[in-house]
Amino acid sequence: MSTLSDVRRFILRHDLIPRQSRVVVGVSGGPDSLGLLHVLLTLAPEFDWHLHVAHLHHGLRPEADEEARFVAEVAGAWGLGCTIERAPVREVAAQPGVSLEEAARQLRYAFLGRVALRLGATVVAVGHHADDQVETVLMHLLRGSGLAGLRGMLPSTPLADLRLTALPPAWRPEVPGIRLVRPWLETPRQAILAYCTAAGLQPRFDATNTDATFFRNRLRHQVVPLLRQINPRLTRVLGHTAAALQGDYEVLAVHRRALWQSLATVGEGQVRFDLDGFRRLLRGDQRGLVRKAIALLRPELRDIGWEHVERLLDVLASDPARRSGGPYPLVAGLAAHLDYTRLIIGPETAMPMEYPRITGVQSLNPPGCLALGPGWELVVTAVTWPPEGPPPWQGVTDPRRIWLPVDIPTPLVVRPRRPGDRLRVFGLDGSKTLTDLMNELKLPRPARATWPLLCAADGEILWLVGQRAAERCRVMPEAGRAWEVRLVAGAVAGES
Fold first, then answer.
1. CA atoms within 13 A on the CB side of 279
2. Judgement on whether residues 66 and 178 belong to the same structural domain of the protein
3. Distance (Å) of CA 428 to CA 385, 424, 462, 465
4. Same structural domain for residues 427 and 465?
5. pLDDT tens figures, 105-164
6. Are strands 334-339 and 376-384 parallel, antiparallel or unpaired?
7. End of a domain among 316, 350, 384?
8. 3-state secondary structure of 55
9. What is the CATH number of the domain that holds 155?
């Protein structure tokens, strides 16, 4: 049969099922899965495959009991092992936002994974075909998907990559190394039905496939027929489109992995990007990296809304010189924050407030630290270096860090601005009023009244914190020791 040879070539082209594999075949009893089981059983002697039938009883229709018996009888007649299990689909679907269709899908994959683990199988085969691919691409298009969704279903994918977020953690099997394969993916359903007839198979037909309350069924019976009137080759055309986008996605994924490795660090429940490098990227790459960060931090999240990421990118684009700010809400309790040299994405509750602030006069005895509003700290530590060696500030341009002579009058004082305040700016002749300096730095007006100033015990302003240091902060390289003062975001305190 040409269908058999076509499927054989597809399996070999994509290396779906290695020789001597133990394969779990998901069989509902319908033509797609029954035909797939027959094809794999026919090819099994050539490739030394060992097949096992798995059937999940959804319990949604009166005929479900008869279908389970039918699958068990077929497996027995063909000399194959069979596992049948009943699933609490309605219980899972009772959760907010979980449809019957989605509950059944997740329970089915979890079941297939458990069977594969028990048998030591490395491959799970399912009956998705070319017309299913058409529906999948259209579903993703209508729901608003990027390239990852528009490429449709893949011939092979790690079973562990499927997000089974509607299920309790105990129901989600750990399935490293097990792959889900779709040998029918380039085969139209009409060819599958013809194969079943020619092979003398008598599959069962699921009445729920005509239920228009399911989104996929509405596409199948209402939208797809109209599109076929426009282009009778719809299945082939969209199949080619999905295959082309799969190739493009693979190329883009290699590029994005390289960007991630060069710009991103992961730790403490956060993803941190080098801000300057991130700003230089095209917006599409910025979008891709932010979405990857969200997916990494919230693996249970199936859909990342377009607007969540775009709001952040709009903030960055609106002020290319902006280096601090946030938190900017994203999705699922995540937020972004600009931290001078980094773009930080993490839990919103761990994000620092947008600006450091102080409302009264506070003393700070070095070494020590002082909270500057929620999420910020001023940290003073002692540093030493060989008098003949490079001082610690050599090559450092971080505005969040200054060094003070060890003989500076202490205790240090941190306070908000007062009328007439002036700062003798490091490296410049004379002084400037705080008003003029804040105008030059374009500090947000609402933040100016509580922006912290670091002062010596004698009252002289040493630092407009995080912005400009005073000439009095100058330390001679040969001194060999100094106080290092850092402004740190509380969420990542202790990093330099």
1. 17
2. yes
3. 27, 7, 14, 18
4. yes
5. 999 999 999 999 999 999 999 999 999 999 999 999 998 888 888 999 999 999 998 888
6. unpaired
7. 350
8. strand
9. 3.40.50.620
